[in-house]
Specification:
The complex is a heterodimer of chains A (71) and B (446). With 71 residues, chain A is mainly alpha-helical. Chain A has a domain of 29 residues. Chain A contains 2 helices and no strands. The longest helix of chain A is centred in the first third of the chain and has 16 residues. Chain B has 446 residues and is mainly beta. Chain B has a single domain, classed as Porin (Beta Barrel). In chain B, 6% of the residues lie in helices and 50% in strands. Chain B has 3 helices and 22 strands. Chain B has a 16-stranded antiparallel beta barrel. In chain B, strands 10-13 form a two-stranded antiparallel ribbon. In chain B, a hairpin with a 4-residue loop joins β2 and β3. The longest helix of chain B is centred in the N-terminal third of the chain and has 17 residues. The chains are: A mainly alpha (71), B mainly beta (446). At the A-B interface, α1 and α2 of A face β1, β2, β4, β5 and β6 of B.
Chain lengths: 71, 446
């Protein structure tokens, strides 16, 4: 577990140290709707189903709270 | 003509002035117009390891879920979002909480016509967000209520987001609390003894008091499970999440997240049967009578670490990737990886095929049908807690009109989405899902 966290932290450091700062007018590609970091709204059903059927899914939905999801 | 021009210019200056903040800078509205999302989902699943019948039996289930999401700009900085969900399901496995409907011999692979065969889950979420004048800080709070026949949940939450490095970096912190409560429903053969005298037709659903006597002790000689009710009806969940996103280049953006979740209270499902290998088996009709219900620890701590990396290949094709690692103190560890490749086939239509791989190890307390020992403290035969891997293939199509040219009264059509998902485990479980969504923009802000 400790190794994995170290690996993730190392990866994050490498990524961050290589990044540049873009001006708003340079973000045309990043602002493309297909580049959004959030899930599409239509994907909420898939996330709900996963939180019911998989023990490890779901941070705040399904079996974590907000409905038993036990059927 | 000049007068009209002057009037228009004056009006424009007035409007712009109204959108300036205290420091005199131009301030764009966080949300220009009210947005309405209407979503609909049809879901079906089948399998042979129902937890209600102790790890064997039909898992057939269908669910229909309409959802309405309305986002209303209250002023330049504040947005109120109302999210209303309904989920109406029919479940063969939960129908077998009471499998003795008298219509046919009870069997874990046959659905009963009892009251528990269907239910409706209703959920309402209200959230309020406020953005700072420079749009570099966002505060959000939310409250949620969810209810179904045997379950009620109240949730509260909030988040704070900071943007810096000219909005190239984003840091967020969120916290949520859920207070849930069960109405305890046990498998019919384990329900507490009532006052009525048992009789031969106690296995028929013709009397409210049926099964509340020790009917099965009379009908099946020797069957006398040592069952005790759960002492707790509540379940509390506390979660804290950290998010960090960074623009890495003009074509690459990444995101890291960490979620910490603590749950306490009744974490078992009260109508999940368990059968012990060191106890004699008792059957009535074709149905194995329960030795006990699922017993799980009253606390669980979960950690989930995730990462996203999206790459803009060209103006037609993007690449969206996701990875998540999960572990908890019940012995479950999991890896999830997914990829989606949106392809713009025209300026309005996008196809987005996707693939997701998921695997988990089993909980320490899981064993298949009839393999638990009665001497154990905790036990479950819920295959959602078993070791398995799963593949999910998805295919979506999206229509987007940024100018909302198609009008239905004051409603301008912004987008239409359709997606199909097929999910298969390496156990005997599979599911399909059809999702549909349409988004409207209302011309003038409320």
């Amino acid at each position: 577990m400790k190794k994995k966290i170290m690996l993730l932290a190392g990866l994050a450091f490498i990524i961050l140290s290589s990044c540049t700062i873009l001006k708003e007018y340079e973000k045309v590609n990043i602002n493309d709707p297909d580049m959004a970091l959030a899930d599409r709204k239509i994907d909420k059903f898939q996330t709900t189903f996963q939180s019911y059927r998989e023990a490890a899914s779901g941070a705040n939905g399904g079996k974590t709270g907000g409905g038993c999801g036990c059927n | 003509m000049k007068i009209i021009l002057i009037l228009l210019l004056t009006a424009a200056v007035f409007v712009l002035h109204a959108q300036e903040n205290e420091s005199g800078e131009y301030k764009k509205r966080v949300l220009e117009n009210t947005e309405i999302d209407i979503l609909f989902n049809y879901y079906e699943q089948d399998g042979e390891n129902a937890a209600v019948t102790g790890g064997i039996g039909t898992e057939e289930l269908t669910d229909i879920s309409p959802t309405l999401i309305v986002a209303i700009p209250l002023n330049d900085d504040d947005v109120l979002t109302i999210n209303a969900n309904i989920s109406a399901y029919t479940s063969a496995s939960s129908s077998n909480i009471n499998p003795f409907d008298g219509a046919q011999p009870a069997d874990p692979f046959v659905a009963s016509s009892g009251a528990s065969k269907s239910d409706t889950w209703v959920n309402l979420i209200g959230s309020y967000s406020h953005s700072s004048d420079d749009r570099n800080r966002i505060w959000t709070s939310n409250v949620s209520v969810a209810a179904e026949y045997d379950y009620f949940s109240l949730g509260l939450g909030g988040s704070h987001t900071w943007l810096f490095n000219e909005k190239n970096t984003e840091l967020s912190l969120n916290a949520n609390i859920y207070f849930d409560s069960w109405s305890l429903i046990y498998p019919v053969e384990l329900r507490p003894q009532g006052n009525d005298e048992p009789d031969e037709d106690d296995y028929l659903l013709d009397d409210e008091d049926d099964f509340y006597g020790n009917a099965f002790g009379t009908l099946v000689p020797g069957y006398d499970p040592s069952f005790t009710e759960h002492p707790d009806k509540g379940r509390n969940s506390y979660s804290i999440g950290l998010g960090f996103s960074q623009i890495l280049s003009s074509k690459l953006i990444g995101y890291l997240s960490a979620d910490f979740i603590l749950q306490d209270g009744l974490l078992s499902t009260p109508y999940h049967r368990v059968y012990f290998s060191d106890k004699e088996d008792y059957f009535f009709q074709n149905f194995h009578l329960a030795d006990d219900v699922e017993r799980l620890p009253d606390s669980r701590f979960k950690i989930a670490l995730g990462g996203r990396l999206n790459y803009f290949i060209n103006h037609r094709v993007s690449l969206r990737t996701y990875y998540r690692f999960y572990t908890d103190d019940w012995g479950i560890a999991s890896h999830t990886a997914s990829i989606e490749v949106p392809v713009k086939i025209t300026d309005k239509f996008t196809l987005y095929p996707s693939y997701r791989y998921y695997m988990q190890t089993a909980a320490d307390y899981f064993a298949p049908y009839n393999q638990h020992l009665s001497s154990s403290e905790f036990y479950s035969s819920d295959y959602d807690l078993s070791e398995f891997s799963a593949n999910n293939f998805g295919f979506g199509i999206s229509y987007t009109d940024v100018f909302t040219k198609t009008k239905l009264g004051k409603f301008g059509l912004k987008s239409i989405d359709f997606k199909y998902n097929k999910y298969d485990r390496d156990t005997k479980f599979s599911a399909s899902m059809f999702s549909f969504g349409v988004k409207f923009i209302i011309d003038s802000a409320i």
